[in-house]
UniProtKB/TrEMBL annotation, chains A, B:
<dbReference type="InterPro" id="IPR016188">
    <property type="entry name" value="PurM-like_N"/>
</dbReference>
<dbReference type="Pfam" id="PF00586">
    <property type="entry name" value="AIRS"/>
</dbReference>
<feature type="domain" description="PurM-like N-terminal">
    <location>
        <begin position="63"/>
        <end position="180"/>
    </location>
</feature>
<dbReference type="Pfam" id="PF02769">
    <property type="entry name" value="AIRS_C"/>
</dbReference>
<feature type="domain" description="PurM-like C-terminal">
    <location>
        <begin position="193"/>
        <end position="342"/>
    </location>
</feature>
<dbReference type="InterPro" id="IPR036676">
    <property type="entry name" value="PurM-like_C_sf"/>
</dbReference>
<dbReference type="GO" id="GO:0051604">
    <property type="term" value="P:protein maturation"/>
</dbReference>
<dbReference type="InterPro" id="IPR036921">
    <property type="entry name" value="PurM-like_N_sf"/>
</dbReference>
<dbReference type="InterPro" id="IPR011854">
    <property type="entry name" value="HypE"/>
</dbReference>
<protein>
    <submittedName>
        <fullName>Hydrogenase maturation protein</fullName>
    </submittedName>
</protein>
<comment type="similarity">
    <text>Belongs to the HypE family.</text>
</comment>
<dbReference type="InterPro" id="IPR010918">
    <property type="entry name" value="PurM-like_C_dom"/>
</dbReference>
C-alpha cells in the first residue's frame, strides 16, 4: 500500500527540510533571467536541481520530450512521447503569431523531433485578474486554429486566476502526447564524424519579430515569427531517412545551443559554414545594428538535424518540397575534433568558436 | 500535407481576428478572481470559451481528465488518461504541505478518479526573477518525495523565468498520464436514484489550513492540509466495487461543487445529511467564526463517490482500512427530485439548498 502523508509519525513535521544535497552544488543563490534563457545557467539549473531531484532515466536523457514505456504499446511496436512547455512570451501578439500559436506549435514540435505523431494536448491557463475576456478569447481562438491545422486535439485543461500584479496578463502551459510509430533512434548522442548538419530554413526570425514587437528597435522593417508546426516535415524527413541521428527544434538559445548540446552529448565537433546558414536579410540587418548573433536567436519553426552524409542531399531535396522546409540547407558537418565544440568558418575566411550562451540574450521570447 | 502558417496567402494577415462567435456569449468583459474559484463563473468560462473553441468530445465531457483512444492500448483492453493542472497557491508552504505536494497529488488525483493508475508526470515551472534557489529547491524536494511515495515519475519538464513582478514567486504546472486497466465506467452522468454518496474523510482541512497560513485568522489552532494521493484508495474502492458510478476529488469549490456537477450532469437530486458529513472540530470552529461553509472549502485529498446502494457499506468498510480513508462515511443519497439540485438535511431538522458557488470564496487555494 502506498505510504501517504497521513502516515507521518507524530512529531515528524511537514516543515522539516528534506535532504537536498543537490542544492549545495548550485552556484547561484537566486533565480536570474539567465535561468530561463536556454543557455548555460538554465542547463545548470535543470541538471543540478530537477534532474538530480526527480532522478529517473527518462528525465536524465535531457531530451525535449520523454519517450515512456507502456506495455500495451510496446507489444504493438509503438511508443508514447510526452512533453510540456509553459509560454510566457511578451507581448502576447506579434507579427506572425501569438502566445496561442506558440503554445500549440512549440509542444507539437517537441513531440515531432522524437519522431512522434502529435495527437493530444492539454491547456493550463494562468490568468491575471482584470485580463480582458476579448484578449483571452483571441488567444484561445489562435490555439483552436493552430490545433485544427496541425490535426491535434486539446482534450483537457485547467484555469487558474491570480490577483492583479501576481502574473503578467496570461501564461499558458501545454503538455502533449504523441505516438512514435516508426523504428527511430533519434538522440542527441548519435552524431558521428562524417555526418551532415541540416536546418529547414531561415534562422532568427522569431527572436527579431519579438524584439520588433516590443518596440525595442527603431527599425522600419517587419519580420514575422516563423512559428509553425514541424511534425509533417519530420514525417517526410523520416520517410526519406529513417535513420536520422539527432533532431531538435532550435527555440530558446537558438541553433548554437542545440548544436552545442549535440556536440557535448555525442563527444564530437560540429563545424558550421557561415555562408551556408540561411538568414533573412532583414534579420541579418537587425542583428548587425544590435550586435546580436542569429545563431543564438530563438526560432519557433526551425529544426536542426544531423543525418548520415550519404542521405543528406536526398533529405534536403525532399524537405524543400514541403512548405515548412522550402529554404532547407546543409549548414555544416560533424568531425572528430575539437571534441565537444562547435566551430564556424566565417564569411571572412576565419574560424570561430560558437559557444553556449552564458547570459540572457532576450527574456520572455516564448 | 498539413497546411502550415507558411501557406498564408499574401495579404492574409496573421492579425486578422479569427471568428469567435462563442465570445459573444460571455457575460463578463474581464477576468475576475471568481473565474478561478471552481464555481459558476469558472464553469461559464470553461463551457463558453474553452469547450466551444477547442470543440472535441473528449474535452466536452468536462471531466477532470481526458480518456484518450490509442489504438495499441485498445487492443490490450486498456485506456490512457491524460490531465493537467497549474498550481498558484499562496503561500508556497503551509501546515501539512506545499505547492510541491499539491502539484504532484493534485494531478495524481485527477487521474485516479478516472480509475487510472498514474504513471508519469511533467513539470512546468514559471519562476519569478529573484526567487531564492533554496525556496525552489525545497519545492522541488517536496515534489520529489511526493512522487516517490506515490510511485510516479516526473519524466519531462520546462522552466521559464519572468521579470520581478511579472509572476508571484513560482507557479507549477503538472500534466499526468496514467493507464486505466479495469473495465470502469466512471462518469458524472451516472448517478441514479437510490445510489449512495460517500466521502473518504474530514472535509475543508485544506481550505482552512491555507487561511491560517495566510494569517487571515487570529486563531490559535493549527489545521493541516489534507494533501495526499488518492490512487491507491481508488484502486481499493474499485476492487470492492468495480461499478462506481461517479467519482471526483473535491478541490476548488469543495464537496458542494462536485455534487452539483453530478446532480446537473445526471439529472438527479442529491440529498445530504449534515450530521453525517465528517468535519474536524477545528475546521468547524474556524468556519463558524468566519461564516464559511465547509461544503465549499477546498480539499486536496478528499474524493466524493456515488455508488450503488447495495455495495455502499462494503466499500466504506474497505475504505476505512486504508490510511487515506480512515474517516470514510456515507453522507447522503441520490433521489429523483428536485432534479439537478443538491439539498441538505441540517442538524437542526431543516432542509436547505446547497447551490453552486457563485463568487470566489478563497483565491489561490491551489
Amino acid at each position: 500500500m502506498t505510504r501517504t502523508l497521513l502516515d507521518r509519525k507524530p512529531g515528524e513535521s511537514s516543515e522539516a527540510k528534506p535532504p537536498t544535497q543537490w542544492l549545495d552544488r548550485m552556484r547561484d543563490k537566486h533565480i536570474t533571467m539567465a535561468h530561463g534563457s536556454g543557455g548555460k545557467a538554465m542547463r545548470e539549473l535543470i541538471e543540478r536541481l530537477f534532474v538530480e531531484a526527480f532522478d529517473n532515466p527518462l528525465l536524465a536523457a535531457m531530451e525535449d520530450q520523454a519517450v515512456v514505456p507502456l506495455e500495451g504499446l510496446r507489444q504493438q511496436g509503438t511508443k508514447l512521447a510526452f512533453t510540456t512547455d509553459s509560454y510566457v512570451v511578451n507581448p502576447l501578439f506579434f507579427p506572425g503569431g501569438s502566445i496561442g500559436e506558440l503554445a500549440v506549435h512549440g509542444t507539437i514540435n517537441d513531440l515531432a523531433v522524437s519522431g512522434a505523431t502529435p495527437l493530444f494536448l492539454s491547456c493550463g491557463m494562468i490568468l491575471e485578474e482584470g485580463l480582458s475576456i476579448d484578449t483571452l478569447g483571441q488567444v484561445v481562438s489562435r490555439m483552436r486554429e493552430a490545433a485544427a491545422l496541425a490535426g491535434v486535439s486539446i482534450v483537457t485543461g485547467d484555469t487558474k486566476v491570480v490577483e492583479r500584479g501576481a502574473a503578467d496578463k496570461l501564461f499558458v502551459n501545454t503538455a502533449g502526447i504523441g505516438i512514435i510509430q516508426r523504428d527511430v533512434a533519434i538522440s542527441a548522442r548519435r552524431a558521428c564524424p562524417g555526418d551532415v548538419v541540416i536546418t529547414n530554413g531561415n534562422i532568427g526570425d522569431h527572436g527579431v519579430a519579438i524584439l520588433l514587437a516590443r518596440n525595442e528597435l527603431a527599425l522600419e522593417s517587419t519580420v514575422e515569427s516563423d512559428t509553425q508546426p514541424l511534425h509533417d516535415l519530420v514525417r517526410l524527413m523520416l520517410e526519406v531517412c529513417p535513420d536520422i541521428h539527432c533532431l531538435r527544434d532550435a527555440t530558446r538559445g537558438g541553433v548554437a545551443t542545440v548544436l552545442n548540446e549535440f556536440a557535448a552529448a555525442s563527444q564530437v565537433a560540429i563545424h558550421l559554414v557561415e555562408a551556408a546558414i540561411p538568414v533573412r536579410e532583414s534579420v541579418r540587418g537587425a542583428c548587425e545594428i544590435l550586435g546580436l548573433d542569429p545563431l543564438y536567436l530563438a526560432n519557433e519553426g526551425k529544426l536542426v538535424a544531423i543525418v548520415p552524409r550519404e542521405q543528406a542531399d536526398s533529405i534536403v531535396d525532399a524537405m524543400r518540397t514541403h512548405p515548412a522546409g522550402r529554404d532547407s540547407a546543409i549548414i555544416g558537418e560533424v568531425k572528430e575534433t575539437p571534441n565537444g565544440a562547435v566551430l564556424m568558418a566565417t564569411a571572412f575566411g576565419g574560424l570561430r568558436v560558437v559557444d553556449t550562451l552564458v547570459g540572457d540574450q532576450l527574456p520572455r521570447i516564448c
